[in-house]
Specification:
- By secondary structure, the chain is an alpha/beta fold.
- The chain has a domain of 85 residues: Nucleotidyltransferase, domain 5 (2-Layer Sandwich).
- 39% of the residues lie in helices and 17% in strands.
């Protein structure tokens, strides 16, 4: 009986320690201003202006047109970069919609395109 209680005690300690190592799913963000620049190979640029209009390069598109244009623009690349230049007044939902379009392309064509949110340097 003493060996069983030792085993139960060790299992209890093991599960208590491993449960504290699990990170929660919530992400806390404080967006920093940066003096440095991250340079990536730019494949396609998507713009969202203050009126929430989406442009692929300089051509106005809706989300379906954006998906078709991104498929065409990144047809020969497995790991392209979509640079998203959004006005600071644009609601986050529009940015998420563009990211969702890129994720749909990634899952449909087994690619690894990424979205880079362009910011201005801090002064």
């Amino acid at each position: 009986m003493a060996s069983m209680s030792d085993l139960v005690f060790l299992l209890l300690i093991f599960f208590m320690l491993t449960s504290t190592l699990i990170a929660p799913n919530a992400i806390k963000l404080l967006l920093p201003s940066s003096e440095s620049r991250t340079m990536a190979k730019q494949t396609v640029t998507v713009y969202i202006n203050g009126e929430n209009q989406v442009f692929l390069e300089e051509t106005p598109v809706d989300l379906a047109g954006l998906q078709a244009g991104l498929i065409t623009g990144m047809a020969h690349e497995l790991e392209g970069s979509v640079v998203l230049r959004a006005d600071k007044s644009v609601p986050v939902q529009y940015i998420v919609d563009v990211i969702d379009v890129v994720n749909k392309i990634n899952s449909a064509y087994q690619t690894k395109h990424k979205v880079i949110l362009a910011t201005r340097p801090s002064r």
